[in-house]
Amino acid sequence: MGRAHEVRAASMAKTNLAKSKLYSKYGKLIYMEARNGADPTANLKLRALIDKAKKEQVPADVIKRNIDKAKGGTGENYTNVKYEAFGPAGSTFIIDCLTDNSNRTFTNVRSVASKCGAHLGNPGSVSYQYDYEGVLVVKGMDEEAVLDNLMEAGLEPTDLYENEDGTLTVTSQPSDLNPIKEALEKVEGAEVLSDEVLWVAKEQVEVPAEDMEKVQRFLDKLGEDDDVSNVYHNVSNLPEEE
Questions:
Q1: How far is residue 33's CA from residue 40's CA, in Å, rounded to a whole number?
Q2: N or C: more exposed end of the chain, with fewer CB within 10 A?
Q3: How far is CA 38 from the centre of its chain?
Q4: What is the pTM of this model?
C-alpha cells in the first residue's frame, strides 16, 4: 500500500529522550490530562497515557505523584508549542515543547538553533513537508489479517507495511489511531508494540559528513532542554542512538 516502506520507516525519525526527560514529559502529560478527570477508568485518555508511560518504564511514583497533584488543584499550567527549524544541507526539524513559559522556551530554542547552524522558520514553513499521522506497530499478525480486522471495524489505514523484524507498521489519520489500536488488540495473538501520533517527513535528505556534527549538536542541545518533548527531522543518515 502507498509509499515504499523503506522510505516511510526512515522518515519516522524522532530523537530519543533520556530517562529523566522521559519521566518529566509523561509527568507533565499525565498531570494535564488528570486535570480533566483523575480517574483512569472514567478518563480514557488518561488511562491510555498511563499505559504508554508504564510501557516506557516510567516509575509508578511519577505517575501517582502527578495524578495526586492534579487532584489537589495545584501546580503548573503547561502549554503545547511547536517550532519549525531549518538546518544544514536541507535538514528540517519540528520541535514539540510542553512548557509553562512559552517566552522562555522560544528564547532557548532560538538560541540553540543559532549556535548550531540552524534557524527557526515561520509556522508552516517546515510542517507542510511532513505528514501528521498515527503510527502503530503490531506483531503477531500478517497484512491480510490486519486489513480484514480493520475493514470489519469500518477502519481504513493510510499505509501498511512489514518491517525487517516481521512486525507491521500501520499508519492512519490521527483520529483513527485509537480505534485501530482497540480493533487490533482484540485479535488473539496480536500485540500492539507502540502507537503514537508523529510528524513524518515526506522526503529524506542525506546530510554530508561535514555538516552532520552541527545537526547532531543541535539535537543534543535540544535534548537537554526540559521544555522540549519531541524533535522530528528528515535526516536519513543520522547515526542511531545506542
A1: 10
A2: C
A3: 24
A4: 0.82
Dist CA 231 CA 96 (whole Å):
6
Span 182-190, average pLDDT? 93
Q: Distance (Å, rounded) from C-alpha 83 to C-alpha 102?
A: 11
- Cell output for 28: 507533565
What is the spatial distance between Cα 134 and Cα 173, in angstroms, rounded to a whole number?
Answer: 6
- Give, as one character, the DSSP assignment of residue 205: B
- For residue 79, CA distances in Å to 126, 127, 181, 185, 228 come to 21, 19, 27, 32, 12
For residues 66 and 38, what is the distance between their CA atoms, to the nearest angstrom? 10
By C-alpha distance, which of 85, 89, 87 is closest to 207? 89
* Number of residues in the chain: 242
What pLDDT digit, counting tens, does each position of 86-136 carry? 999 999 999 999 999 999 999 999 999 999 999 999 999 999 999 999 999
Indicate the Cα dihedral angle 159, 175, 77, 220, nearest 10°.
0
Domains of the chain listed by start with CATH number = 1-130+202-242 (3.30.70.980), 131-201 (3.30.70.980)
Write the single-letter amino acid at 176: D
Start-to-end CA span in the chain (Å): 31
Name the β-bridge partners of 228: 97
Cβ atoms of residues 133 and 200 within 8 Å? yes
pLDDT in tens, 20-77: 788 888 999 899 889 999 999 899 889 888 988 998 889 999 999 999 988 887 767 8
| Integer Cα distance of 160 and 168 in angstroms | 7
